[in-house]
Write a structure and sequence with these properties.
The chain has 167 residues and is mostly helical. The chain has helices at 2-9, 32-37, 42-47, 59-85, 135-147, and strands at 94-97, 112-115. The protein folds into 2 domains: 24-86; 88-167, no CATH class.
């Protein structure tokens, strides 16, 4: 993220993508609750059972997931500091998301974090309930903020954006 922030600050590049983990992430996180599970991989923890397909309700796995989220968010915050240190809050948009939403990898209530306001176009520092909007509508909103031009139909957007995330 430091290299991406430097490239943006120098106007060497204007877009970047970084994938952190994958859909069946088998990383074993050394967090306290996972030690009591016998060190399950993250995918099992996200399913709350030792399975890549079934869904369980193991409360210790749920606690381990929360601890892993804390590790990931601390790492994200440190990464975003590279952008802040270069004064990119008002000109960049960083999007963090994953596919672990409700249940067994549904696309319902997928969490997103937006950092930076895209030139004052996006709200900052608040939780926004997008009211059932699609991921495509969110990305359409981000594209509009970044370019000043609405995408006619990005993904499942139907050409719509999400007014609730606009400043």
């Amino acid at each position: 993220m430091g290299l991406v922030a430097l490239a943006f600050a120098c106007d060497y590049n204007r877009t970047g993508t970084l994938q952190w983990g994958d859909g069946t992430d088998h990383t074993v996180y050394e967090v306290p609750s996972n030690k009591t599970l016998g060190n399950w991989n993250f995918h099992f923890i996200s399913h709350r059972t030792q399975s890549d397909g079934a869904t369980g309700s193991n409360s210790t796995a749920e606690a381990a997931h929360a601890e892993i989220d804390q590790v990931r968010m601390a790492t994200l915050a440190k990464s975003l500091q590279h952008f802040a240190d270069r004064g990119l809050q008002n000109s960049a948009i960083v999007v963090w998301t994953n596919h672990v939403a409700e249940g067994n990898h549904t696309m319902k209530n997928v969490p997103h974090i937006l950092w930076g306001n895209g030139g004052g176009v996006l709200k900052q520092g608040q939780y926004v309930d997008a009211g059932g909007a699609t991921n495509g509508q969110l990305y359409n909103t981000i594209i509009t903020a970044a370019t000043g031009n609405a995408s006619p139909n990005f993904g499942s957007s139907g050409g719509k954006d999400i007014a609730a995330v606009k400043a």
